[in-house]
Amino acid sequence: MSPDRFQEITGQYASLRVGVVGDFCLDRYLEIDPARQETSIETGLPVHNVVNVRSQPGAAGTILNNLVALGIGEIYPVGFAGEDGEGFELRAALRTQRGVRLDHFRQTDQRRTFTYCKPLVVETGKPPVELNRFDSKNWTPTPALLQGRLIDSVANVAPDADAMILMDQVDLPETGVITLKLLEAVRCLVREIPELPIVADSRRGLRSFPPVCLKMNSAELSALAGCPDHAQLEELKPSRPCWPAFQSLREHILALRERVRVMEKYSLEHAKCSKSQGLVRGGRAGAPRAAERAW
């Protein structure tokens, strides 16, 4: 890819509309100053004094952060938060992002806000040390009424979108946004709007997903294909009709494949991420544009 071609593609980002469908969580960082440690009178245990709290969107929200950093014109998150303090913080964090439209981001008293609470010991001149994380998750199936509203939102966002990204972050099936019913609705979209680029990622695997662009790392690819660890896309032979797939290779390259053939490669060093953990997700954020150009 030449610099001129790269500029031609990225120069259109501001005019694009992208839907991000999936599990939005709140990444809540508690910065602890060890110099202010006290001892609890009641328990005799150490008291960690928090001197700063940072909250930002995580999981699907990390993809959204990277789309904002890329300069995408309009971003439509499709997901939910609970009617709780964490939900208030998550909506506030999303609302402040440039180009983000919250018309299809639901708030409900039937769900908790998915939260990763991360205590960090922060000392001057030293890298932060993360302590045990506190997670808030949902352990029951997503209510049918909420699923229906999310499916309606996907149907409303898709016709005007230039691309859509699906992010399945939850560990327990059917407890988040990406449920079997929603995937069936996406399957219908693929038939009705075949020109719409859709990229999907799931930490639990992609076997149940419709024929959209699949993003996975080496371990996820190996599990999907039933191959040894560290399998590469070019090593695989399709056992069923193939569609484009992305394999993230960390700091090296992102390979776009269709019918087990490399169509285009580009360096991840151009992808700017909102945090170090978001490197792969930064690649995912740019993937729909690269896929559309390659097609």
Task: Characterise the protein shown here.
- The protein is α/β, with parallel strands linked by helices.
- The protein has a single domain, classed as UDP-N-acetylmuramoyl-L-alanine:D-glutamate ligase, CATH 3.40.1190.20.
- 27% of the residues lie in helices and 28% in strands.
- The protein contains 7 helices and 16 strands.
- The strands form 3 sheets. It has a 9-stranded mixed β-sheet with strand order 7-6-1-11-12-13-14-15-16, sandwiched between helices. Strands 2, 5, 8, 9 and 10 form a 5-stranded mixed β-sheet that branches.
- Strand 11, helix 5 and strand 12 form a beta-alpha-beta unit.
- The longest helix has 16 residues.
- The two termini are 15 Å apart.
- 37% of the residues are buried.
Unreliable stretches: 251-282, 290-295
Instruction: Quote the average pLDDT.
Output: 84
Output the CATH homologous superfamily.
Ribokinase
CATH topology: UDP-N-acetylmuramoyl-L-alanine:D-glutamate ligase
The main sheet comes to: 9 strands, mixed
How many structural domains are formed by the residues? Answer: 1
Q: What level of helicity do the residues show?
A: 25-40%
The run of helices and strands is: HEEEEEHEHEEEEHEHEEHEEEH
- Class computed from helices, strands and strand pairing: alpha/beta
Question: What top-tier CATH class fits best?
Answer: Alpha Beta
Q: What is the 3D form?
A: globular
C-alpha end-to-end distance = 15 Å
Number of strands: 16
Specify the CATH architecture: 3-Layer(aba) Sandwich
Strand order of the largest sheet: 7-6-1-11-12-13-14-15-16
Rounded Rg: 20 Å
